[in-house]
Amino acid sequence: MKAIILAAGKGKRFGEITKSIPKPLIKFGKFCLIEHNIFLLKKYGYTDIVINVCHLKDKIINYLGDGKKYGISIQYSIEEPEPLETGGGIKNALKLLGDQPFLTVNSDIYTDFDLSSLQLKEGDLASIVMVKNPDHNKEGDFSLKNGRVRLDKEKNLTYSGIAILHHEIFKNYTSLRFKLVDVLLEKIKSDKISGFQHKGIWHDIGNAERLKLVEKLFPNN
Predict the structure, then answer these.
(1) Which domains does the chain have, with CATH numbers?
(2) DSSP code for 133
(3) DSSP letter, residue 142
(4) φ and ψ at residue 28, rounded to 5 degrees
(5) Is the whole model's pTM more than 0.85, yes or no?
(6) Nearest-angstrom CA–CA distance, 36 and 27
């Protein structure tokens, strides 16, 4: 199974930092954010990886190269002149991902999730990993019942940025720029998405404050 790391965003919540450094290349300990996810993917056998890029794309491409130094293969899906959002970015990369289910991971999360435990059931279009609502998303995204993702009033879970997707989930989307969450919401209503709650380590490193917090939690990373 192939994997895509989403790395095209501008990272505006980091302020001045991301005007010269793309968010995926911001250092967290000895490695940058995207490298931690490359290591996670490789650990669970994902060695054929696509990375979508836009903002300061050349810096990401030059830093990571073709993946040989990590023992993997990296291809790049380039978005120009502006990022295509999460959904549009994945759809734009389908030509590199093929017609089989694939894994998607946000480049700005840090987690110990066992990627081998996530499976796409027959007939489903996605299986997503969720976590307990963090402080920055207390209202939550979804709920979970008998392994199925629901849109109940009590949204006690947040999408982690990790999912297995079937390429057909984008079949009816003709626009170039759209968010993955909009696609998920539509398919949840038709009961096409399963879910899994991860109770281990997970952090969304979306801004400088959250980066500092995680650095304190994992000082030797």
Answers:
(1) 3-217 (3.90.550.10)
(2) P
(3) B
(4) -130, 100
(5) yes
(6) 10
